[in-house]
TrEMBL record:
GO terms for biological process: glucose metabolic process; pentose-phosphate shunt, oxidative branch. Residues 1-19 form the signal peptide. This is Hexose-6-phosphate dehydrogenase (glucose 1-dehydrogenase). One of its GO terms (molecular function) is glucose-6-phosphate dehydrogenase activity. Pfam families: G6PD_C, G6PD_N, Glucosamine_iso. It comes from Channa striata. Residues 34-218 form the Glucose-6-phosphate dehydrogenase NAD-binding domain.
Length: 791
């Protein structure tokens, strides 16, 4: 029974077919082409030209055509607009002017505008098509709907097509869609399942226009034709790395409302560059014409990509982007966008063949040049003693040059010290005249250069593939979701990362250069930190962390993670400076939950921090035994001290437990601690004091209404907290304000209200104890994360 069902399924699948069989079985007949959004920009610029070319190529094929431009306006106003567009289509050079005029006239006669808004409009269209078929006794070959409309309209239109416009039996239905196909895995799944209600997967043709680029479309054919050269070297033993690069010089002005929601990773890396990556690394199909096998092999690569996280990416944003967002989105001057306009991502494939081979995907706006290419750089173990410019010592590489750049045309280039490639077919030629240009580091004369004899427009190419049912030039649902599965985790992990700001164009200098280190990628140069006022200047500076003023003291602000890293770095810098000067660093730390992330960062970087010469003091302590979870020291011990190599005698917990009792005045714990400070810390001046602020404005354990200023004469005091445990021991302002550096760390949305109030109130120690933090000779810095600062 089981076996029978299985066999039946196999049989059905074979019949249901991958496009291959259908492609062969495609019968000539009448084809109706409908461009929904037929008077829009894309249709005007590319689509009608592409369909005209299709018509010209098919004129003597036995197929007949009608073309419909669909739009929301009435036929009266839509028709003249459509015909203006149609009149502008042009013939290729080799067609004579007379013949061209004739073809254009026929094409215009076969075309008409239709209002396509309601279900009735679609039904009318279907009736019209059927009536025409009947009247002229034509057999129907298929119907092609090109949806050149925003993605949110897809599901609705697909539903209308399914309900009223399916062709007569035996004829095909193809519905073409343009990206964006969602903005993450979940939204792509939702969109796909909505479409699946109305359309079968093989009826959908999702365009990735990169797959229509001649060089991209010929990556697999090139790999197959040159298999005998490539097989031995297409692996981890010979490939140094793979780079897939799309550099643009334009900004995104005018497209901000769209772009700001997507950014370069969703706009370019998730689709175009990922597709190229798959074509370069997938197993070669036995039969290139088998859509099914090509898809399977591609999906295999997707599923072998090692997970991408923050450490596999760097992001940037061109400097004027922020102002463009503020302007086009009608936002205030303090609005920040974290949308990246530049990204470099490092991928690895978890397969024996490519183990450890770095695959870089890079794209950006406002870069120094416009160019797109994929480069396979091979290892070269030759050493040239006398002449390092000898050909065998030069880089060995294959460049799939998609277009633009120094070369200006699409080409496949193979270093002469690799092999002489086989010409793909009669549509390709070898370039013999080498102009004086460099292509990806090598003079043109160092390559064998192949280029298409005739350059095809991408859309014209893709439209001919749609017509031929070549579905592997398009993105299937599985392919789409597999790609989003790779990118979605990275996108979420970058959601709060501040991009590096770059000036744009040639001024970028080496700011966006990256460095690979094992599985990780980082910017090659350190970030220069500048204040927001300087951001407007044209210098090549950039910031990840913003500096400004808060309550007339210095302020540093960033997203939580960067802020904590910056604070940790500042503490380390202070430590190194103090140790250089006096051989020792005295650090006083607060309790509470805010500094936990800081403790973790310090613990992680413990190898480079001079813990051996650091003394750790407590800013305040709760009157509980140190072994209890409530104890500030206990927290500090668990999250930091036990992870670092600090001598025991450099650790100074507060003596809250004396004579078997907690914080009793007569036991003199506060005085003891003060004495220890005076004994060890020069002038009782800590090098660094870390403080937080409570919702009520308290800092250390100095609470509102507790007459904190009366404690001036001592460095340490017992205090009362309004919350349990009530008794505390705390440094006084007298101790805090002697410090050389004081950091006030405030994080989290919950503190935004407090920060807003603090920015307005005058000094008022009774109500807002934190306003008394004023180092006499030292420096106060507020560390506020964006949540606390901006809410
Ligand atoms: C199309 O519509 C019909 C009903 O009109 C429905 O039965 C079918 O499932 C729909 N979807 C597809 C993919 O055919
Ligand atoms: C921008 O916002 C202001 C205030 O909210 C409003 O008055 C104005 O009409 C907006 N302009 C645009 C172009 O949205
Ligand atoms: C101790 O502090 C004083 C100023 O308060 C300073 O002049 C002196 O150099 C310091 N000594 C050491 C060893 O750091």
């Amino acid at each position: 029974m089981f076996v029978t069902v299985f066999l039946l399924l196999v049989t059905l699948c074979a019949w249901g077919g991958n496009g291959e069989e259908r492609q062969e079985a495609q019968r000539p007949g009448h084809v109706s082409v409908v461009i929904v959004g037929g008077t829009g920009d894309l249709a005007k610029k590319y689509l009608w030209q592409g369909f005209f070319q299709l018509y010209v190529n098919q004129v003597s094929s036995g197929n007949t055509f009608s073309f419909y431009g669909g739009g929301l306006s009435l036929a009266d106003s839509g028709t003249p607009v459509l015909f203006e567009i149609l009149k502008a289509v042009s013939c290729q050079n080799k067609v004579s002017a007379e013949r061209c005029a004739l073809l254009k006239e026929q094409f215009l006669r076969l075309s008409q505008y239709r209002q396509l808004k309601t279900l009735e409009d679609y039904q009318d269209l279907a009736n019209h098509i059927e009536k025409q078929l009947q009247e002229e006794g034509m057999k129907e070959a298929g119907r092609l709907f090109y949806l050149s409309v925003p993605a949110f309209a897809y599901a609705d239109i697909a539903d209308k097509i399914n309900n009223s416009c399916r062709p007569t039996s035996g004829a095909w239905l193809r519905v073409v869609l343009e990206k964006p196909f969602g903005h993450d895995l979940r939204s792509a799944q939702i969109l796909s399942s909505q479409l699946a209600i109305s359309l079968k997967d093989e009826e959908m043709y999702r365009i990735d226009h990169y797959l229509g680029k001649q060089v991209v479309a010929n990556i697999l054919p090139f790999r197959i034709e040159n298999k005998k050269f490539l097989d031995p070297i297409w692996n981890k033993h010979h490939i140094e790395r793979v780079e897939i690069v799309l550099k643009e010089t334009l900004d995104v002005r005018g497209r901000i409302p769209f772009y700001d929601q997507y950014g370069v990773i969703r706009d370019v890396l998730q689709n175009h560059l990922t597709e190229v990556m798959a074509l370069l690394t997938m197993r070669l199909p036995l039969k290139l014409s088998s859509n099914k096998e090509v898809l399977q092999n591609k999906l295999k690569v997707f599923s072998s990509i090692l997970p991408l996280g923050k450490n596999q990416a760097v992001i940037g944003q061109y400097q004027s982007y922020k102002a463009e967002v503020q302007q086009e989105q009608n936002k205030t001057k303090d609005h920040n966008s974290l949308t990246p306009t530049y990204a470099a991502v490092l991928m690895h494939i978890d397969e024996a063949q490519y183990e450890g081979v770095p695959i870089l995907l890079i794209s950006g706006k406002m870069l120094d040049e416009r160019v797109g290419y994929a480069r396979i750089l091979f290892k070269n173990d030759a050493f040239c003693l006398a002449n390092h410019k000898a050909i065998h010592c030069k880089p060995k590489q294959i460049i799939f040059h998609f277009g633009h750049g120094t070369l200006q045309y699409p080409a496949i280039l193979v270093s002469k010290n690799l092999f002489k490639p086989v010409l793909l077919n009669s549509e390709w030629k070898e370039v013999m005249e080498h102009t004086d240009v460099n292509v990806v580091g090598l003079p043109m004369s160092d390559y064998y250069v192949h280029t298409p004899t005739e350059q095809h427009d991408t859309y014209t190419e893709l439209i001919s593939h749609i017509f031929a049912g070549r579905s592997n030039s398009f993105i299937s649902t599985e392919n789409l979701l597999a790609s989003w599965e790779i990118w979605t985790p990275l996108l979420s992990s970058l959601a709060t990362t501040f991009p590096r700001i770059y000036p744009g164009g040639a001024d970028n200098g080496d700011l966006l250069d990256i460095r690979l280190k094992g599985r990780e990628v980082s910017y090659n140069s350190e970030v220069v930190i500048i204040s927001p006022d300087q951001v407007g200047s044209t210098s090549a500076n950039n910031f990840q962390v913003m500096q400004g003023k808060f309550r007339s003291a210095d302020m540093i602000s960033a997203w939580a993670e960067e802020l904590v890293e910056r604070l940790a770095a500042d503490i380390q810098e202070a430590a190194e400076a103090s140790i250089r000067e006096g051989g020792v660093f005295h650090l006083a730390l607060s309790g509470g939950s805010t500094p936990l992330a800081l403790f973790h960062t310090l613990a992680l970087n413990h190898f480079s921090f001079p813990w051996r010469n650091t003394h750790v003091w407590m800013v305040d302590e709760r009157c509980v035994p140190l072994s209890e979870l409530d104890s500030n020291f206990n927290t500090l011990h668990d999250h930091l001290l036990q992870h670092v190599r600090i001598p025991y005698y450099n650790i100074h917990p507060m003596p809250v437990l004396l004579n078997q009792r907690l914080c009793v005045e007569e036991d003199g714990g506060a005085q003891l601690y003060e004495k220890e400070i005076s004994k060890l810390v020069n002038s009782s001046s800590f090098h660094f004091v870390l403080l937080g602020v409570g919702y009520d404005g308290h800092t250390a354990s100095l609470f509102p209404g507790s007459k904190v200023t009366e404690l001036e004469n001592s460095l340490v005091a017992l205090t009362e907290s309004p919350v349990k445990p009530h008794q505390r021991m705390s440094l006084t302002f007298s101790a805090i304000n002697r410090a050389q550096k004081v950091a006030l760390l405030v994080m989290g949305k919950g503190k935004h209200e407090l920060i807003t109030q603090l920015s307005r109130v005058k000094d008022n120690p009774e109500k807002w104890p934190v306003t008394s933090v004023k180092p006499a000779d030292g420096r106060l810095v507020w560390y506020l994360d964006y949540d606390a600062l901006l809410g």
